[in-house]
Amino acid sequence: MSTAFSAANFSTQSFPLNHTSTTTHDSPLVFAKPTSQFLRSTPKLRLSSFSKLNLSRRSGTVVAVSDVVKQKKSKSTPTLLITKEEGLELYEDMVLGRAFEDMCAQMYYRGKMFGFVHLYNGQEAVSTGFIKLLKQQDSVVSTYRDHVHALSKGVPARAVMSELFGKTTGCCRGQGGSMHMFSREHNLLGGFAFIGEGIPIATGAAFTSKYKREVLKEADCDHVTLAFFGDGTCNNGQFFECLNMASLWKLPIVFVVENNLWAIGMSHLRATSDPQIYKKGPAFGMPGIHVDGMDVLKVREVAKEAIGRARRGEGPTLVECETYRFRGHSLADPDELRDPAEKAHYAARDPITALKKYLTENNLASESELKAIDKKIDEVVEDAVEFADESPVPPRSQLLENVFADPKGFGIGSDGRYRCEDPKFTQGTAHV
Amino acid sequence: MLATASQRILGQSFQNIRPAVSVLRSYSSAAKQITVRDALNSALDEEMSADPKVFLMGEEVGEYQGAYKITKGLLEKYGPERVLDTPITEAGFTGIGVGAAYYGLKPVVEFMTFNFSMQAIDHIINSAAKSNYMSAGQISVPIVFRGPNGAAAGVGAQHSQCYASWYASCPGLKVLSPYNSEDARGLLKAAIRDPDPVVFLENELLYGESFSVSDEVLDSSFCLPIGKAKIEREGKDVTITAFSKMVGYALKAAEMLEKDGIYAEVINLRSIRPLDRSTINASVRKTNRLITVEEGFPQHGVGAEICASVVEESFAYLDAPVERIAGADVPMPYAANLERLAVPQIEDIVRAAKRACYRSVPLAATA
């Protein structure tokens, strides 16, 4: 089933965007051992009830899409991967991410933002490419570099900016901060400071989706979870533990590696025995894909397949996005160890410029339309800053709130009220 | 061998204590005996059948019937989707449990012993305990982490640590530690129903102990409140606080003290966080002397917190310095005689109580 994953075709076609020869790996989609062998053994492991639901579905559509694309290519008309609306949506989202992060840097140096702030400049293609394909009920789990994931998922820019300023109107009322963005409404599950911490959480969210379908019988629950993390995390034990369990239990999750080649000052190549992260997927029985993370359209195509796979119940996918952060690790990082030539190389592959070029060259949008979007986003970000500035700081009483969902510590009874408020508390089963 | 010997001693002593206690508290007359193991098993069973969102995960909880047979029979009854045998990946599966709890499922994560929870402690503290606060109430985590805690018999240093004080120092967690079958049933059911992360510290040596329980305890809606201690034995001369296995020792010590005319009040803490400071302080105000008993390491332990709480709130009522009985300040040795020296014994409690009662001038406690 996994071999039908046809992203292999993408690397051989030349996309109109960037002719990148930097992906020097020979065959990105060689699956070391056919995963079908592994999957066939799962019924013996008593997981048949889990996989029963989707064994009959095949991922035939994947092959079909690439075949169609191939045929179209041969007709020598340029293949458009997106419609105009989609293109503008992607452009707007990426520009929002970039403008927001630039504003964060300004605000930080003016003292309005403090603590640890990690900016996402340069990596927008990954966030936009993946998250714009999700539904509201799908969840995203991120790391400390989570502002743009929050924005892409739908958290309003005002809420994120207020949170960064530490105001009570922020998405977590100022209690989380830059590294801990949570939104129940948009299913953004954080925001984690420890690397690798979000991966098991994401796996748990995917587990819930499966549990709801199989055990709680919510038959239409096909929520997918995306876990974003970096190259350094791929050396962490929890990453491997979760690859194993996600594949073992066929969970609807996509592991997205934002490989920007650098931890703080530690190059990925110095830290990793085998730097090709996508290869770690097949070792656990899932496809491992490498994609150019500076190209939002390529990312989007791969994301469609991976998310589709998860939604159909075929299990997890590991996607390695080769990307780059234009700024330092955080605003406190002087960023002296990275080679300027490397930075220049990736700056030339700026995802926003590339998409702009694609849209204008294929007559999907005019310069003026894109400029209008730029202007609109500037206004949105300015408004967010104003809103955050004018918002009040949290009141003192907020310090002790929300430590527990049930602060009275006696448990919530079956009527939904705290048990200790029940007048019959000292009788009956509440034995003191 | 040490374990069974002490179990027999304790078992016999309970037969003697039970009637005395039941005179003071009004239990219903029909008394059935169940082991702590059966109490926990029945609590899990009932909560799983009541709420389909409750599921178990841990090593060997399914086909092996539980490393200590606590989850016996549950795999057959509820199937492998709800009783999950996990690979040996504490960090991974604890995080998965927390992630599932973010969505309102109610996982009960078993650690084979709480020593292994150290591999997952990042998820217990950072992902579970702090999430409700960090997300300003949007994401609550209704998860239970349970397993045996503290010293067993001859299992060595890496399997014998008591984690009550570590977890109890963290805001956002509730920490419970049952003693007898009634505690085990009531507190586990309360923990599973609670919408916050609960660390449930059992004790391996108590699993096989039988205790009498009333019919009320066996009712499927029985639940104990979290955050309330129980006065197991009333007295007037000295207060002894304890939790888990040490409650049994304290009760036995109280019996021995009674022969010398010292009537000890034994408090079973049940809940380490939130600590029932009001019950402890009320008792100290009555008896004016306090002994805290715990099995864990002494520094920054539960006893230290209780002592500070009493000094803060009831200093004027103390007639003697607070005595802390704790495990020895060493990693647990293996040799049986050394192990006996490293864990509090009944005689230690008796001696401490006598010291507290005969001392009228506060003297610095010598080593």
TrEMBL record, chain A:
Coiled coil ranges: none
Keyword list, A-Z: Oxidoreductase, Pyruvate, Thiamine pyrophosphate
Domain Dehydrogenase E1 component: 93-394
Pfam families linked: E1_dh (PF00676)
Enzyme superclass (EC): oxidoreductase
Reaction catalysed by this enzyme: N(6)-[(R)-lipoyl]-L-lysyl-[protein] + pyruvate + H(+) = N(6)-[(R)-S(8)-acetyldihydrolipoyl]-L-lysyl-[protein] + CO2
Cofactor(s) recorded in Swiss-Prot or TrEMBL: thiamine diphosphate
Gene3D superfamilies to which the protein is assigned, alphabetical: 3.40.50.970
EC number of the protein: 1.2.4.1
Subunit text: Tetramer of 2 alpha and 2 beta subunits.
NCBIfam families on file: PDH_E1_alph_y
Function noted in UniProt: The pyruvate dehydrogenase complex catalyzes the overall conversion of pyruvate to acetyl-CoA and CO(2). It contains multiple copies of three enzymatic components: pyruvate dehydrogenase (E1), dihydrolipoamide acetyltransferase (E2) and lipoamide dehydrogenase (E3).
Name of this protein: Pyruvate dehydrogenase E1 component subunit alpha
UniProtKB/TrEMBL annotation, chain B:
InterPro entries according to UniProt: PDHB_mito-type, THDP-binding, Transketo_C/PFOR_II, Transketolase-like_Pyr-bd, Transketolase_C
Substrates-to-products reaction catalysed: N(6)-[(R)-lipoyl]-L-lysyl-[protein] + pyruvate + H(+) = N(6)-[(R)-S(8)-acetyldihydrolipoyl]-L-lysyl-[protein] + CO2
Domain Transketolase-like pyrimidine-binding: 34-209
Keywords associated with the record: Oxidoreductase, Pyruvate, Thiamine pyrophosphate
First-level EC class: oxidoreductase
Pfam families xrefs: Transket_pyr, Transketolase_C
NCBIfam families: PRK09212.1 (NF006667), PRK11892.1 (NF008854)
The EC number(s) this enzyme carries: 1.2.4.1
Protein name: Pyruvate dehydrogenase E1 component subunit beta
Cofactor entry: thiamine diphosphate
Role this protein plays: The pyruvate dehydrogenase complex catalyzes the overall conversion of pyruvate to acetyl-CoA and CO2.
